[in-house]
Amino acid sequence: MVLGKDDMFDTFLSQRGHRTESERVGWEKDYNKKQCPECGGLHDSSATECSVCGWTPYEPS
Ligand SMILES: [Zn+2]
Q1: From the CA of 61, how far away is ligand 1's center (Å)?
Q2: How is the chain split into domains, by residue range?
Q3: pLDDT tens, residue by residue, 11-39
Q4: What distance in angstroms lies between residue 4's CA and the mean position of ligand 1's atoms?
Q5: Where on the tree of life does the source sit, at the highest rank (predicted)?
Q6: Dist CA 12 CA 5 (whole Å)
Q7: Three-state SS for 8?
Q8: Distance (Å) from CA 7 to ligand 1 centroid
Q9: Are 9 and 17 contacting, i.e. CB atoms less than 8 angstroms apart?
């Protein structure tokens, strides 16, 4: 299932200069929201995992 391929997401990428996708281990920041780097889903800043695709950020302990 592919989500987040809408115009808003394309605009978001182009504004960022479409960085090279390498090892992205943290949330993308979008205003006061967190954005999942995997599916582009937006979540509250309190989110600890993506409720859309189940992605979780890598957190070194
Ligand atoms: Zn996700």
Answers
A1: 22
A2: 24-54
A3: 666 666 655 555 558 999 988 899 999 99
A4: 9
A5: Archaea
A6: 11
A7: helix
A8: 17
A9: no
